[in-house]
UniProtKB/TrEMBL annotation:
One of its GO terms (molecular function) is DNA-binding transcription factor activity. Pfam families: K-box. The lineage of its organism: Eukaryota, Viridiplantae, Streptophyta, Embryophyta, Tracheophyta. It comes from Oryza sativa subsp. indica (Rice). This is K-box domain-containing protein. GO terms for cellular component: nucleus. Residues 1-71 form the K-box domain. InterPro entries: TF_Kbox (IPR002487).
Length: 145
């Protein structure tokens, strides 16, 4: 029978056997096409789902890029404002001073009791012929816990 489905050894078959063989082949072909269609539909749905996820991730990344860009613009404005406020000390070097305030629990070296306070930390950025130099400072009696 298998060889007959492959088109071999058909010479001894009568018309009825050939018609049965033809209907079996048509049924097999129909089942193969149905399975192929189902597999393709599943793949299309999966690709559509992945496309939606990628689109959503792309939108989130665009929002993040926009926020970072806006933050960069704000920081550039602050740096420019600091440069406009502070005079240049030396014609050969450029210095910018920035102050940052950190809130947190600190303990003092003298008594060791924790205090919840805001402490000013300053840093100085100097650009000279060697390259940028960064100096950080913290009041001497304060130690971060």
């Amino acid at each position: 029978m298998w060889r007959q489905l492959l088109g071999q050894q058909l010479s001894g078959l009568d018309v009825e056997d050939l018609q049965n063989l033809e209907s079996k082949l048509e049924m097999s072909l129909k089942n193969i096409r149905l399975r192929k269609d189902n597999v393709m539909m599943d793949q299309i749905q999966e690709l559509s789902r992945k496309g939606s996820l990628i689109h959503q991730e792309n939108m989130e990344l665009h929002k993040k890029v926009s926020l970072v860009h806006q933050e960069n613009i704000n920081l550039q404005k602050k740096v420019e404002a600091c440069r406009n406020i502070l005079p240049n000390n030396d014609a050969d070097s450029t210095s910018d001073i920035f102050s940052i305030h950190f809130s947190g629990v600190y303990k003092t070296k003298s008594n060791g009791h924790p205090t919840g306070s805001t402490i000013q930390h300053s840093f100085l950025i100097t650009d000279n012929e060697i390259g940028p130099n960064l100096e950080l400072s913290l009041p001497e009696n304060v130690e971060k816990e």
